[in-house]
Amino acid sequence: MALYHIRKYQDNDHESVVDLFSRGMEEHIPATFCHMLMLPRTLLLLLGVPLTLFLASGSWFLVLLSSLSLFVSLWLLAKYTWEKYMVTCLHTDMADITTTYLSSHDSCFWVAESGGQIVGMVAARPVEDPLLPKKQLRLYHLSVSSEHRRQGIGKAMVRTVLQFAEAQGFSEVVLTTSMLQYAALALYQGMAFQKTGESFFTNVSRLRKSPMIHFKYSLTSALEGGL
Predict the structure, then answer these.
(1) pLDDT digit string (tens) for 120-176?
(2) How many angstroms separate the CA atoms of 179 and 198, rounded?
(3) Do β-strands 136-144 and 172-178 pair in parallel, antiparallel, or remain unpaired?
(4) What are the DSSP calls for the chain, one per residue?
């Protein structure tokens, strides 16, 4: 028997949902920092600048100071995109979740609850584009607390969105995630989402070569093969 249950969001969940969302975003900063350290241009910078300073000044103090400054700058760059996205969400769709996601029959926000605590979340809204050939639902904000992962909660929440999309007559479910969200990438690919493209959230993302990955799930194909 599942140790959690999935239900619709309620107004008194807001503080817990924001905390879960914020912690989830912060978890991606170390992975982003490590990714940046492995880039050839970063390695060249980390080796070249201190070496140049040492050859010019002979000062180990300047070498240590420059190295520390470079690492701090890289960490701040790693934080930048995640913090920008988090602040944007908290001031837009997540500022009033009930109005954004629960005021229409074709959008929703769910939480996973375990032991009286919110341990997971996911949301969905229609894609507003009259030129689309098919009716699309966009999945947002999938997150599971670190203490409750590997229990199937993420997959169950995605299935909740897919079932909702089918019931509301959508043809496709689409989503966007970062190439640095390794667990999310594995989850979506394992559930037969198909990659449709890449883009960059900010110029900083482009600089550090960490694109956003776009996915699509065809409900028509799934229904033919059995969802």
Answers:
(1) 999 999 998 878 888 999 999 999 999 999 899 999 999 999 999 999 999 999 999
(2) 9
(3) parallel
(4) --S-EEEE--GGGHHHHHHHHHHHHHHHHHHHHHHHHTSHHHHHHHHHHHHHHHHHH--HHHHHHHHHHHHHHHHHHHHHHHHHHHHHHHTTTTTSHHHHHSSSTT-EEEEEEETTEEEEEEEEEE---TT-SS-EEEEEEEEE-GGGTTSSHHHHHHHHHHHHHHHTT-SEEEEEEETT-HHHHHHHHHTT-EEEEEE-SSHHHHHTT--EEEEEEEHHHHHHH--
Token reading at 23? 């912690």
Question: What pLDDT band is residue 226 in, cutting at 50, 70 and 90?
Answer: low
Confidence of residue 216 (pLDDT cuts 50, 70, 90): very high
Average pLDDT over residues 52-77: 89
d(CA 159, CA 166): 10
In angstroms, rounded to a whole number, what is the distance separating the alpha carbons of residues 114 and 148?
9
The structure tokens listed for 190 are 């394992």
Which tens digits make up the pLDDT trace of 37-51? Answer: 999 988 998 888 888
Angstrom distance (rounded) from CA 182 to CA 119 = 19
Contact between 90 and 105 (Cβ < 8 Å): no
For residues 194-222, average pLDDT: 86
